[in-house]
Each structure stands twice: as C-alpha cells, then as structure tokens.
Amino acid sequence: MVRVTVWNEYRHEREDDNVAELYPEGIHAALADALEERGHDVRTATLDEDDEHGLSRDVLDETDVLLWWGHLAHDEVSDEIVDRVVEEVRDGMGFLPLHSAHYSKPFKRLMGTSCSLKWREAGERERLWTVEPGHPIAEGIDEQIVVPEAEMYGERFDIPQPDALVFVSWFEGGEVFRSGCCYRRGSGRIFYFRPGHEEYPIYEQEEIITVIDNAIEWATPTDGVEPNFSNVEAAEPIGEE
Amino acid sequence: MVRVTVWNEYRHEREDDNVAELYPEGIHAALADALEERGHDVRTATLDEDDEHGLSRDVLDETDVLLWWGHLAHDEVSDEIVDRVVEEVRDGMGFLPLHSAHYSKPFKRLMGTSCSLKWREAGERERLWTVEPGHPIAEGIDEQIVVPEAEMYGERFDIPQPDALVFVSWFEGGEVFRSGCCYRRGSGRIFYFRPGHEEYPIYEQEEIITVIDNAIEWATPTDGVEPNFSNVEAAEPIGEE
Amino acid sequence: MVRVTVWNEYRHEREDDNVAELYPEGIHAALADALEERGHDVRTATLDEDDEHGLSRDVLDETDVLLWWGHLAHDEVSDEIVDRVVEEVRDGMGFLPLHSAHYSKPFKRLMGTSCSLKWREAGERERLWTVEPGHPIAEGIDEQIVVPEAEMYGERFDIPQPDALVFVSWFEGGEVFRSGCCYRRGSGRIFYFRPGHEEYPIYEQEEIITVIDNAIEWATPTDGVEPNFSNVEAAEPIGEE
Amino acid sequence: MVRVTVWNEYRHEREDDNVAELYPEGIHAALADALEERGHDVRTATLDEDDEHGLSRDVLDETDVLLWWGHLAHDEVSDEIVDRVVEEVRDGMGFLPLHSAHYSKPFKRLMGTSCSLKWREAGERERLWTVEPGHPIAEGIDEQIVVPEAEMYGERFDIPQPDALVFVSWFEGGEVFRSGCCYRRGSGRIFYFRPGHEEYPIYEQEEIITVIDNAIEWATPTDGVEPNFSNVEAAEPIGEE
Q: N or C terminus of chain B: which is more exposed, having fewer CB within 10 Å?
C-alpha cells in the first residue's frame, strides 16, 4: 500500500457556497475517499490545520507520495514547510501538484521557472489527449478524456521541458496545454496534472482518478542509493603515465 | 548562405487541378522562391526527375539542409536513395520533413517508429501554439500561428519523444498535435514541421516560411568531429592496482 | 509474473572453448536461471533453433519483455523476424538489448541511428556509475558497479539522446560510455544495458542481474489504449466563427 | 557581436599566491581577454565591485550572455541580485555557470535541485569526451579534450536531466561526470561547463575557450515572443454542441 498524503489549501470550500456544495468536506476529502477505494493508505493535511499546515516531519516521513492542491493562498504556505517538502522530494518522495498548484511554492521551487500560464474561466470543454499511451501513467486511459466544463489553462506554460509529456489538452476556446508532465528532481518523481478546478466535479470523473492513481504508483519511491556528496579518495591510481 | 535542397514528390500538382492552381510550378518551386528571398542558396529536386529522384551524391554533397515534401508516392522512393539521405543526415546534413512527409521513408527510418497519426480533411482552422518561445526556431513568431484552412493531424502521433517540442497545434474539430519537433540523429538535426497541405495556400503564409527559414538556420551543420568508430588503443595504463 | 524471453545468438559458446567454459549452456541459459530465481517466468530462444530463430508469433505473443544478446551473426537474423520484433515492441513489448546487441538489427531499426561505438578487448576494469539513483532501474544498486574485467565500449555512441540515462561507465583505459539508456518507441519501453562480454563472467555478478531484473519490471507493458491511426470524424463543430 | 558579461567572485586570486600567479588580473580578466580575441564584446563584473556585485540593471540589460565563476563566497551574493539574474535568464539572457558555479545561487535556483556532487583535489587527468559531436557547442572540438591536471567532480551530480548532454568527463581516479549540460529555462538558454579550477591554467587551453565561445553563440537570445500570462478571451466560440 502506497502511503499517500493529500494536501489541500481548503479555502474555496469554506468560502464559496458553490464549491462547498461540490466538495462539502473539501477537495482533499474527495480525493482521499477516491484513492482509498483504489487501495491506497491515504491521509490528508490542510493549510490551516496547525502551524505546520499538517505537514510535520513525522507526516512527511510516513508519506510516499504527496498530492498538492492550492490556489488562493500559495503565499501563506510557510517557507520552512516548503523547504521541508522540497527536501523530501529530492530524497525520493513522489509529488503530484494538481491544477492551480502549478503556482504553488514547492512546484515553482522544484522547477526553477515561473510556472506561469494564461487562463480563462468560461466553463468550456477540455479534451485531454493521451500523447504517450505506453506510459504507465496512461494505463487504462482511452485516447482522450473529455472534461465537460473546465477552467482553461493555455500555453505558453513556463516550465522546463518535461522528462515525459503524457497528456496535452485541447480547449473549446482555442488553446492547448501540456497537462500531464513528468519530472525527476533529486531522487523524487513529480507529475503535474492539470485537471481539477474547484467549481466543477472533475475529481468525480473516474478517468481523472485513474490518472492520479497511476501517477501515485509511478511516483512511489524506489530504494535507490543515497548519493555520496563528499570529498572522496581515488579508487584508481593517479599519476601513472 | 545555407545551401538548401527542396525535394518534392511533385505529383499532386500535376494530377489535381486545384493543387495546380495553388502551386502551378509545384510546392518545391513555391518554397524555393520564398527561401531564396530569405537569402538561402536553394535548388530543387523531384521524384520523377531522374533515376536518382534528383538526389545524386553530388547534389547531397552540396546540400546543407534538405526539405522533403511527399504524400502519394512514398513507396516509389528507391531504398538506395533513402539509404543515401539517411547516411547524409547522420553525417550532419539538416533534414526538414514537411507535413505528409511524416510518412516518408527517410523520416520513418530516422525515427524508428511508425510515424502514424489520425487525420481528417475538412478545411478546418488550425492554431499552432508556440510552446517554446525561446527556441531559435520560434524567432520572430507570435504566440500562435493561425492557419485558416488545414487538414487535421491528431495525436497519438507515433514518434519518439522529441529532443525539443516547439509548436503544438489546436484543431477546430477537437484534436491536438505536436507540430514542431526537433531531433538529433547522428550528427544531423531534424525538424518535423506539420503545416503544408497541398490544397491550401499554406506555404504562402509569411509565418510558416519564417519557421522553415529559422529551422534551416538551426539545422545547418556545424563542424563537429567525425566520430571514431574503431578498435582503439588505451590512452591510460591498464592493469595497475 | 513477468513473461520473459531471453534470446541469444548462441554461437560464441559453441565455437570458443573459453566462452563454453564460462557459459556451458549458453548465455541465455545463465540469464534464464538467474531471472527465474528472481521470480520471472522465463523462456529462451536462439538463432539456430528453428527457421524463426525461436521467435514465432506465439512466442512473442506470450512475451512481456524480450532480452537480446547477439554479436557474431547479427546479419543472419532474418528481416522477417526483425520486422516482427520491432512491431511487437511498438505494440508494447519491453525490449532489453544487452552488450553487443547495440549492433543488433532490431535495436538499430528502433533507434534509427548507426549505434556504432569504439571498442577494445583488454580485460580492463569498468565502473558503472549510477547517474540517476532515483530511477526504478537503479533500485537496490550502489553508487557504482565495478566489473573487474570488461571489454571497453567508448563514446561517441551513436544513439538518439536517451529519454533517461541511468548509468555511465568509466574504463581503465580512459573512455566513458552511456551504459544504461531508456527509450520509449511506440508503446514499448527499451533499455539498452552495456555489460555482458562473453569472455568474462559478468552475468554472474549479482548487481548486473539486479539491473536486468529492475529493467524487466520497468519495461513490462502497461495496458494503454491502442492508438487510433485512421481518418476520423470531428467531435467538435467546424465552420463556426 | 554578442555582449558578454563575465562575472567572477574574484577572491581566490586575491587571497592565494598560487592562484594569483596563474590569474594575476583574475579569472574574469583572463576569460574576457580570450573571448574578446574571439570577437565578443566583453565586460566583467565582480562580487566586491559595488553593492550590486557589478550587476546593475543597466549592465544586465546590455548583456546577452552572462558567465559566472564563484566558489568561496556563493552565500555573499545578495538574493536581490540573484532574483535579478534569474529573471533575466527567464527573459532570454544566456547563462553559463562555470566549474564551481554549480553551487552558485542562480544556478541552483534555475535548476530546482541541490546541484551537489562529489569531488577531489588531486591534480588528476581529466578527459572530456564529446558525446554529441553534432551539437553546435561541440563545433571544432575533437573527440576528447584532455585537461592535464584538474580537480575531480564525480557523479551523482544532482541536476535535472539535461535537455542535451554534450560532454562527459573521465577522471584518472575512477569517476565520471556530466560536464557539458544544456538547459532552457523560461526563454533563456543555460550551459553548465565543468572545467576551470582556479589552481590550474585551464582557461588558457584553446579547446576550453572554444567550447565557451561556442556556448556563448548557442546561448545568445533569439527574438521570441514574450509569453502572454494573463486572463484571455476565447478566440473560438464556446458552448456549441
């Protein structure tokens, strides 16, 4: 069982009636339920939970893969916790920033870019095309996922070139977007996945959960050697001609 | 001055009145004219020109970058000439397969994949989004190029992951496509560029020519060392402990 | 259980006493034994086994991951079987070319390059450094694997840029080599792994088998959609302004 | 003429007699001289020059490509100037961190990783192998560059997977290193180049200057569109079925 922590800012759901109706217990709870059904060992954490945003060292030590949803309050996440999350990813923890988490502090820190994009809220249709059907994150996914109503995110998405690009979105209003992007940073694996606006029941779509489920499996750390970053002796003779 | 050879199958233009009207001297001639205006040293070659399809060793020796347009008669290109082109690319010649040349023998040979895709001829609008505005092939290009009427090519496009992905297309009918893809194979650089259906005046669009012009500059060979593929002596002592 | 087929040319072992002593039943048998111990469902196939080199359609249909060892007789592998193997890889079968299989027909076909390199047989020390400790193929592997005696392969290795580079070799005589290279081609995953000269007991090294074991897990096909390569109807309206 | 700024920490040269003997005017002056001879328009800047480390907005506005050498005093570079440099790179300025600048603040910020490595100071021989002879940064470079005496840097080098890997180093003492790594971040191009320890006359080696010269050409910004990161109107109709 993969130990998953779903982190959520959890503000929209408490401030906006429409969102509360969709996700009465919060987006984190909806995701946790869906992922527990898929057999994962899931806990949740939220921004206002305690002075560590629910991400104590103990919680992170027991986390294989961390999901991150945030939007209104990226700046309220303390730099100390961001440092901690970034460090954990580099040490191997999987990291799945979802939707508006493109602008979260940990993702921006791990990417080294602005992670900016263009956007529009018009409830338009999105089609996520499976660009790499052979990738494990695309397992069980059809050639496209149709999201009936979505916020648009459009290119230029200011990210480093992904190590693998799994999904590309089409939007009714005329834009495209690299919606499923894999990275390795340090020993950790990162998958940015675009869908998930708070005003539409996107995390109730079976295929969306399947992608997240696949991404959790893909991002689960494997037991690699801890890198040796030190001054070392030579194993081979130096100075022979 | 970059020495460019524009290769064209040159069948549609001679067999179909609509195409002949658009490209009376052939697509190769239209491209050659446009690229000469941009300051390149351009020659053309066509499938039925001679028993080497206009691609004698002398012609290829004097070619820095080869453009390739083909559609109806990929199979009529002799394997000997394909071997020759592939060899030249590996030795450093730039190669720009255009549009339906995704299915040309040299491109398929250099990619190692089927290069298949889905398609539709409905004269629909295409928007090529500039995914990498900092790439030299995007120099002078706006955030999108709108092609008013295009044949659709849709993902899954069965290619190896590009070394760089510069353009992604949006189509009116609902599909997306990786439309500008960079590769290095051997010492040669390859840029696949999607636009260019024979029934629309796409090669008369200024931005399309700009992209091709940029790609020619990018693909022009630089003077790298010829790899040494042989049995070699050791430069360092072997057998010391 | 992953269904593994180990293909071996099986000539050195029958023609050269030194090799026969190391691998009396052939390299394929040694690999099969080691991989069965790791829990895989392994069968073997060899060049001279039957007129299909042991790679009938039935065998390939029941193969998740194909290992390939060849050296002296690459040219004797029939093009029909090569076509079949390449097709299977594109359809999702994992493919692990080992050592001198860099020059095998299926690998060259899937890469689109010459796959040439420089070499030396001097029984020198090789150190495979783990460049990506977080990659699943490096699971359980230390920061380096030392092969006491190896044939040298040196750069320039004429391959496409790997999708991921997991190991880089150091050689006593002064060369380096990209020794563990991941690719996706079609829906299949490919891992080229350098170690394995026939004159040294390299496939008896535990770490070497661990890498191959990991690569088998990594290359096992996942159940992705079969791409739709056809003329399609538009899902969205065309012709609106 | 490319406008190059060579930034140097300039401490070793003022604090250590051996270094002062090699680079009496500083590493920046030696590089500036060599690059001026190659036809570039070069200025220099140093850490202690003024309260902006010589990197005022005006200087950066007039810089196409910034070289960076630092070692002892990475932490003394003010975060404000680091922000400024990172911003300029994202806006297109080329950036060439040299040698120990792997640990400079701007490089670490742009990579998002620790950029750690292992090392040894033993004056050992280094061989930089040209892994991509067809890359423009390898123009005019032989299959290897031999540095007679070098500080060793060894893998695991904790960087994101490079967009292109041009050189890999071999070290006498048994290690390897990815010594020439290309990245795009925002609209800017970055080339990390390893050689350059302050105690050896490495920047007097002609081939080393050739690589830097090539990298400057490669990293010079091209005139791409400034990305539009805003809330946008739809260009296509929304809400049709």
A: C
